[in-house]
Design a protein that fits this description.
With 588 residues, this protein is of the alpha/beta class. The longest helix is centred in the middle third of the chain and has 18 residues, at 293-310. Bound molecules: fructose -6-phosphate (F6R).
């Protein structure tokens, strides 16, 4: 959902900002723009991907040692040059880039129109520079004017402000991600760390209502408390190469391959924190897992494992639906929130509700310093490194393995998972090998022109079928739907025609029933793709995946991640940037 970056230092801002935009493009790729200050404010923006727009508008032609930039995922207003950021105040002296949604923008627009201001875009953002201009006209103190203007905003924002009135960059956040990078005599402010990772690994995480003044120094105030905050610098252990494609053509393929390592890293946890979480889960009167998208599928997978391994019942909720069940939450509840980014708006909202009711909040998250980490009583990090591709691949399997560890830990079988991971490592190595890729390419060629595809599973394999369908549809745009094997005869089988591809996930435990479902599908003409440890006459295409029992959700999804990737390439879709999608969904 939009990426923003700002820079103040001694270097030429435009090249740093452009680099940052390229690293943030996974957050939105509808349009982009840049503003640089060199006594006067210079702004350039347009519709299109970062590299195209930067070339067309000659971003690098802007000279100055401070600036702000934005890559947009459209929410309010269509994809047009006028709606692209930065947005300027009427007097063109103040530029703003913004990620989030200003809920009271209509009201503020009306107020400003009455004061004589005009609006040139359909965005909610345009009220911000004009509100600052209005406040500045009343009291010629620019920092105070920014504070006053921001205090009037309702909704979510991460904003960067650049102005001919001020020698620096102002940054502020409320319910949208923003982190500060601290270099040698230079500062960065960005939606996400990869934007400035190649310049510094020193960061300052911000809290809601933090207001940051960046020039030769850094000062942080809290807008709500009206006080200055002590600057706390943390170090991050992500490496630059983790945030680069390296020899891979796409981040998606790189991140699928990384699973050989990331699964092990997910298990590197502080035993004391883990034990504390296990105690909380044991003592809870009710447990809720809340998450969205792939993270929701990981949660659903875990609910089967909590049931079968730990005999624990869990309520699994799509975060946006959680408010409907909020009244079951009390101080004896545990809400376990699962999120790669730690910034998904619906997850954060669920956690907020649950906190108000006194529930214990535990989270499983990949991004250190994210809002979810700060809102949790306890958290476990996935340690998967930055995930740049919009699709979740390595973070999904890391979530599943970590949740599996929790399920086993509940029955004091923690060591068992650690032992099994070495076997799993070999399996994942085979699943990401060149042989497997060749096989999957062949399958992709066979089904690339299909419009519909179905995935089925039973028990633990049902959430895997859901995740498989999501991966395929979001990156190749083939309509893909998942069903529990037992549901087919209740309606869906009517959709099966000659050669409709159906991916069937088979486990040792469910093999008889699911093979019987596959046979029913085949008798209606379906083309059966079996994901199974042994071949079966019903399969038209067999993907061999060794049986790993409670780890099947990890091993069985990997070939389908590869299939989704290959389908995207064959259908000329960009695997790293699927249409209409952005990496973190920071608005509801
Ligand atoms: C799918 C995908 C999304 C995310 C979802 C939640 O490949 O990536 O469905 O899983 O937007 O995001 P997080 O995990 O950051 O809360």
């Amino acid at each position: 959902m939009c990426g923003i970056i700002g820079y103040v230092g001694n270097k030429n801002a435009s090249s740093i900002l452009l680099n940052g935009l390229k690293n943030l493009e996974y957050r939105g790729y509808d349009s982009c723009g840049i503003a640089v200050l060199n006594k006067e404010l210079q702004t350039r923006k347009n519709v299109g991907k970062v590299s195209e727009v930067a070339k067309k508008e000659n971003f690098l032609g802007l000279m100055g040692r401070m600036g702000i930039a934005h890559t947009r995922w459209a929410t309010h207003g269509g994809v047009t040059k006028e709606n692209a950021h930065p947005h300027l105040s009427n007097n063109k002296k103040i530029a703003v880039v913004h990620n989030g949604i200003i809920e009271n923008h209509e009201e503020l627009k009306k107020f400003l129109k009455n004061k004589g201001f005009n609006f040139y875009s359909e965005t909610d953002t345009e009220v911000i520079p004009n509100l600052i201009e209005y406040e500045f006209s009343r009291n010629q103190d620019f920092v105070q004017a920014c504070k006053k203007a921001l205090k009037r905003l309702k909704g979510s924002y991460a904003v960067l402000i650049l102005s001919a009135y001020f020698d620096g960059v102002i940054a502020s956040r409320h319910e949208s991600p923003l982190v500060i990078g601290v270099g040698d005599n230079e500062f960065f402010a960005a939606s996400d760390i990869p934007a400035f990772l190649e310049y510094t690994k020193k960061v300052v995480y911000l809290y809601d209502y933090d207001f940051v003044v960046l020039n030769k120094n850094i000062k942080i105030f809290n807008l709500k408390k009206n006080e200055e905050i002590k600057v706390k610098i943390s170090s991050i252990d992500w490496s630059v190469s983790q945030a680069k494609k390296g020899d891979f053509e796409h981040f998606m393929l790189k991140e699928i391959n990384e699973q050989v390592e990331t699964l092990k890293k997910a298990l590197h946890q502080d035993k004391r924190v883990l034990n504390k979480i296990v105690t909380n889960l044991k003592n809870a009167k009710n447990i809720f897992f809340v998450a969205c998208g792939s993270s929701y599928h990981a949660a659903l997978t875990a609910s089967y494992l909590f049931s079968s391994i730990a005999n624990k019942q869990v309520n699994v909720m799509v975060a946006s639906e959680f408010p409907n069940f909020n009244h079951f939450i009390n101080k004896n509840s545990v809400v376990l929130a699962i999120s790669q980014s730690g910034e998904t708006a619906d997850v954060l909202e669920s956690v907020k509700y649950a906190k108000q009711k006194g529930a214990k909040i535990i989270s499983i998250v990949n991004v250190m310093g994210s809002s979810l980490v700060r809102d949790s009583d306890e958290f476990l990090l996935l340690n998967a490194g930055p995930e740049i591709c919009v699709l979740s691949t390595k973070s999904y399997t890391s979530q599943v393995v970590l949740l599996t560890l929790l399920a086993y830990s509940l029955v004091k079988k923690y060591e068992e998972v650690l032992k099994k991971i070495n076997y799993l490592w070999n399996v994942v190595y085979y699943l990401t090998s060149e042989n497997m890729k060749t096989k999957i390419k062949e399958l992709a060629r066979r089904i690339k022109n299909k419009e519909h595809l179905f995935t089925i599973g039973r028990g633990l394999e049902y959430p895997t079928a859901m995740e498989a369908a999501l991966k395929i549809k979001e990156v190749s745009y083939i309509h893909a739907e998942a069903f529990p094997g037992g549901e087919l005869k209740h309606g869906t089988i009517a959709l099966i025609e000659k050669n409709t591809p159906c991916i069937v996930f088979v486990s040792e435990k469910n093999k008889h029933l699911i093979i019987s479902n596959a046979t029913e599908l085949k008798s209606r003409g379906a083309y059966i793709i079996g994901v199974a440890s042994v071949n079966n006459p019903v399969f038209d295409f067999w993907i061999k995946v060794p049986e790993t029992n409670s780890f099947n959700p990890i091993t069985q999804i990997i070939p389908i991640q590869l299939l989704a990737y290959e389908l995207a390439l064959l259908r000329k879709c960009n695997p790293d940037m699927p249409r209409n999608l952005a990496k973190s969904v920071t608005v509801k």
